Amino acid sequence: QKEVEQNSGPLSVPEGAIASLNCTYSDRGSQSFFWYRQYSGKSPELIMSIYSNGDKEDGRFTAQLNKASQYVSLLIRDSQPSDSATYLCAALYTGTASKLTFGTGTRLQVTL
Amino acid sequence: ETGVTQSPTHLIKTRGQQVTLRCSSQSGHNTVSWYQQALGQGPQFIFQYYREEENGRGNFPPRFSGLQFPNYSSELNVNALELDDSALYLCASRLGGTGELFFGEGSRLTVL
């Protein structure tokens, strides 16, 4: 069973701080990883994708991938109350069908 | 705005009934996937269609079926509804072989 594991949280950070979200995956064959943000009652919104080891930055967001440790993380700098949401980590397993396997999500709360 | 639209947004059915959910994806997005998201869980892969053929299926029974049409629209059909089918059903599309999936707003199904 290919799995993606996340701490369900909630992770509480003060406004302006760095939020660090973590994810591990079980299948070494997975090549691509994604972070989705999901507000309560809404659908997931893609915020970052990462395909190779190292860091990838996009505005306030930085995704980090370490394939040797099977570890993916998302850093959110200068956290804002509008960042309060559930963050879903997903791994792409390719084969006959390229399907995403999601973790259960980490709930982030940014406090004033 | 992902260009993926779903209908209906909300619906209520009773156990044993049948339901059809619809999705319209972006022009050129020839791959469409359906996911089920139960409350507090990450999305679970139901199946994927590529050029109107099912080319991958998750751990869902045959009463979950689908269709994809040449105009980039698709349907998810669920027969003999059970209480546990209550969930947010998400349609996602992507262009060709890229891994990035873009979700529609979802259809929230409640089975009573």
Write up this protein.
In chain A, strands 2, 4, 5, 9, 10 and 11 form a 6-stranded mixed beta sheet that branches. Chain A has a 5-stranded antiparallel beta sheet with strand order 1-3-8-7-6, with no helix packed on it. The mean pLDDT of chain A is 93. By secondary structure, chain A is an all-beta fold. In chain A, 0% of the residues lie in helices and 55% in strands. Chain A contains no helices and 11 strands. Helices cover 0% and strands 52% of the residues of chain B. Chain B starts with a strand and ends with a strand. Chain B is mainly β and 112 residues long. In chain B, the strands form 2 sheets. In chain B, strands 2, 4, 5, 6, 9, 10 and 11 form a 7-stranded mixed beta sheet that branches. The model of chain B has no long low-confidence stretch (mean pLDDT 92). Chain B has strands at residues 5-7, 10-13, 19-24, 31-37, 44-50, 53-57, 64-68, 73-78, 87-94, 102-103, 107-111. Chain A binds chain B through residues 4, 32, 34, 36, 42-46, 49, 51, 88, 90, 92, 95-105, and chain B through 31, 33, 35, 40-45, 47-48, 50, 55-58, 88, 90, 97, 99-106.
